[in-house]
Amino acid sequence: xxxxxxxxxxxxxxxxxxxxxxxxxxxxxxxxxxxxxxxxxxxxxxxxxxxxxxxxxxxxxxxxxxxxxxxxxxxxxxxxxxxxxxxxxxxxxxxxxxxxxxxxxxxxxxxxxxxxxxxxxxxxxxxxxxxxxxxxxxxxxxxxxxxxxxxxxxxxxxxxxxxxxxxxxxxxxxxxxxxxxxxxxxxxxxxxxxxxxxxxxxxxxxxxxxxxxxxxxxxxxxxxxxxxxxxxxxxxxxxxxxxxxxxxxxxxxxxxxxxxxxxxxxxxxxxxxxxxxxxxxx
Length: 282
Ligand SMILES: C[S@@+](CC[C@H](N)C(=O)[O-])C[C@H]1O[C@@H](n2cnc3c(N)ncnc32)[C@H](O)[C@@H]1O
Description:
alpha/beta; Chemotaxis Receptor Methyltransferase Cher, domain 1; Rossmann fold; 2 domains; five-stranded parallel sheet; binds S-adenosylmethionine
């Protein structure tokens, strides 16, 4: 099914409204390649018909459109350096502060666009590696994504050989996964740290947190500047005063002001928007 310029405008409006992804007039090929089958299958004459049908209350169709347009690419320990900074900087500091004070021994981490789960499971493995007495801590990881299909996959915690070989080290694999006929299964001790939920980052976030650490990586790169800024400001509000924010390796928050002054540990960049605001660090 061929796309025309009016289709592109209408689909772009719908997609922005549904998930924040910004499509410009050059993205006709993407609409054709990702939505043509869905439009045909649902009996739509053209893409504008598909948009009307989705807006007319068909939630399943809206979900399928978001799934088709968004990119779920991910892998275990993606880019590695954020996990190194989590292990050698953020978690040791949090653990020291909480272990030596009257604060509850509680750690809360949010993987804010978790895709099929490789990111939150990598966070959970990092925690297990660092905290030999993890049972004495109240640890919780929230893993959310707009895609129901991705969240279901993440929550199942079963990965094929190709997914497993992307980023996973063999010692971690043997410690935290068991091989079964249906694939590599995440062990229960890891899975039980994580709660999986559908969540759209465009919607209010006031009902969750505060978090000691937020990972929000490789999702807002598809948003326009205003939506991106709005999402990061609202994420920062869900952090504890000393909380850490990790973003994707190609993402810079330089346009968001001094609250988002980049901090460095080895090759990783992270942000502490609560701390920066409180200490006035520039
Ligand atoms: C490229 S993946 C990144 C996964 C992981 N964070 C990583 O870096 O490997 C982007 C994810 O963002 C999700 N996403 C897109 N728009 C979203 C929104 N408005 N709210 C929540 N998740 C969204 C997609 O469904 C997809 O799973």
